[in-house]
Specification:
heterodimer; A: mainly alpha; MetI-like fold; 2 domains; 13 helices; 2 strands; 70% helix; globular; B: mainly alpha
Chain lengths: 314, 273
């Protein structure tokens, strides 16, 4: 017994700073969040245990569902766009070009830039009257757009028809946030893909060249399959990060944030609004818990289902 | 011939992309040196015709950016110090001590990484409020002084240090703790640099939590200060762009100094080891 303690105590002393902080500021709040979701705790204080009532209201809350749909729209546009563009850039950068370092620096610049500053700058670029983007559109002989102030869905605008709710697509306002996020995080994925590409042995490219494969064929049949573990990693990470989008909504949209017509209200913003601004702690915790289940489900789905399709070199 | 054409296409795409990446920065810089009237002019001018530093003066003197920078600097430095201390000690315990339940504890800790901040941010706010920390440096620093990824990375590096080194040091009368500071720490320097980079960038750019726990203007970190300034000021574009420039400048300078380490740190973070 004595030797058992003697073995345990020194490492526990070393671990205690990290463990105490993690316990108080992460484990405890997580447990707390789960428990509170079964309580009625509003601005007037705790009113007691209400079972699944918060979840019941959540399922019937149209604003919650709108935020879920907005988040999904945001993610399913932002992630593939980001992956496709960054993969192409990384592939081109990896073809023995000059000034690789300079290009990599330029593409990486937005990654370390703060999302709030980026949002402020892009809001100015998107300005409907004096913004640079509308200036470019008019130069090209096109109609200026309302960008962040446009509640119409992008499919509605492209096909100029009225569509039922979900088929309208993300509002142009939400899509503007997507475009900005692609610009902002592109460089990160480029760097990750570049590291992945460096790991593909030259012999494969050599073989492809001897077989007379062109640039596209090599890309399609050598690069994509051999890079799939990296792509898979990028996909999971980007999805999880996209699901947590918050700062651009707070900074760029509205007033009030989430506008126009709630088309940019995402889950984390809704959670912030309910749980923090309106201090409906019980209800907010229910949103938080459902949000966590979604993240967990995405991760598990990608791990269990998609990972089987990933090519790993033996 | 075909080869040359291919090169031309590659460079065209890359240069076009690079222009798009730089455009918002250039536009920000250009606007921040303009008068309000010139900023609104159509067609826009790229090089300010009436070059002025007035926007920076406004941001520096009327809006409290020096104070915001001060708060963010303190927060970044103390968070970093906390993270390095907790991570080094924890990683050392996980890699150089044998004790019952070690692997289980480590896995339990890793699994906490899966829970993103928004999930527990409201209860965390309540805990910090109960501690009486709202609108203080404690709220901005203490909850973020543990970095699980940092512990993971350091443990990985520490495990690759040969055992012989340790035995030799002990025979020479070195204590276990001194071994950590005089032998292990210099050997895991690359990992420490990576953690420091992620941490400083993360603290400087943090937004949601500081937004929640600060009320007074003098406790606002720079991102929150900028966000509130942008919310209140919707027409003075030169001042807004000057404020954005000031906000990103410190990290930009850091990036140009430690570019290689930063890019490498990020690219390694994506590799499964």
């Amino acid at each position: 017994m004595k030797s058992f303690l003697k073995k345990l105590i020194p490492p526990l002393i070393l671990l205690s700073p990290a463990f105490i902080i993690l316990f108080v500021f992460k484990v405890l709040p997580i447990i707390f969040a789960f428990r509170l979701s079964f309580y009625d705790w509003g601005i007037a204080g705790i009113k007691g245990f209400v079972g699944l009532k918060n979840y019941y209201y959540l399922l019937k809350d149209p604003f919650f569902w709108q935020s879920v749909i907005n988040t999904i729209y945001y993610t399913i546009f932002a992630v593939p766009l980001n992956i496709i563009i960054s993969l192409i850039i990384a592939y081109l950068l990896n073809r023995g070009i000059k000034a690789l370092g300079l290009f990599r620096t330029i593409y990486f610049l937005p990654v370390i830039t703060s999302i709030v500053a980026v949002s402020v700058v892009w809001k100015w670029l998107y300005d409907p009257n004096r913004g640079l983007f509308n200036y470019f559109l008019t130069l090209a002989g096109l109609h200026p757009l309302k960008w962040l102030e446009e509640p119409r869905g992008i499919f509605e605008m492209i096909f100029s028809v009225h569509l039922p709710y979900i088929l309208r697509g993300p509002s142009l306002a939400l899509f503007s946030l997507v475009l900005m996020s692609v610009w902002k995080s592109l460089g990160y994925n480029v760097v990750i893909f570049l590291a992945g590409l460096k790991n593909i042995p030259d012999v494969y490219y050599e073989a492809a060249r001897i077989d007379g494969a062109g640039m596209w064929q090599t890309f399609r049949n050598v690069t994509i399959p051999l890079l799939s573990p990296t792509t898979f990693y990028v996909m999971i990470m980007s999805t999880i990060i996209s699901f947590q989008v918050f700062a651009p909504v707070w900074t760029m949209t509205g007033p009030p944030p989430g506008g126009p017509l709630g088309t940019t209200s995402v889950i984390v913003y809704y959670l912030y609004q309910k749980g923090f601004e309106e201090y409906q702690v019980g209800y907010g915790s229910a949103i938080a818990f459902v949000f966590f289940l979604m993240i967990l489900a995405i991760t598990l789905f990608q791990k269990l289902y998609l990972e089987k399709k990933v090519y790993y070199e033996v | 011939m075909r080869y040359k054409l291919q090169k031309a296409i590659i460079y065209t795409v890359l240069i076009f992309g690079a222009i798009w990446m730089l455009l918002p920065f250039l536009w920000m810089l250009s606007t921040s040196f303009k008068t309000q009237a010139e900023a609104l002019r159509m067609p826009p001018t790229w090089i300010p015709q009436h070059f002025t530093t007035m926007p920076f003066k406004i941001v520096w003197e009327k809006v409290h950016f020096p104070q915001y920078i001060y708060v963010s600097t303190i927060v970044s430095l103390f968070t970093l110090a906390g993270v390095l201390i907790t991570s080094l000690l924890a990683a050392y315990a996980f890699s150089w001590y044998e004790f019952p339940g070690r692997e289980q504890m480590f896995m339990a800790m890793l699994s906490l990484m899966m829970v993103p901040i928004p999930v527990y941010v409201v209860p965390l706010y309540i805990i910090v409020q109960k501690l009486g920390w709202i609108d203080t440096f404690y709220a901005l620093i203490v909850p973020w002084t543990v970095n699980i990824f940092g512990i993971f990375l350091l443990r990985q590096h520490m495990r690759s240090i040969p055992r012989d080194l340790y035995d030799a040091a002990i025979i020479d009368g070195c204590s276990k703790l001194r071994f950590l500071f005089s032998v292990v720490m210099p050997l895991v320097k690359p990992a420490i640099v990576t953690i420091a980079i992620f941490d400083v960038i993360g603290s400087w750019n943090a937004f949601m939590w500081p937004l929640m726990v600060t009320n007074s203007d003098k406790m606002r970190p720079i991102q929150v200060g900028l966000a509130y300034f942008a919310q209140g000021e919707t027409t003075n574009y030169p001042a807004l762009m000057a404020a954005s420039t000031i906000t990103i400048l410190p990290l930009l300078i850091l990036f140009f100094i430690a570019q290689k380490q930063i890019v490498e740190s990020y690219s390694r973070s994506g590799l499964k080891e």
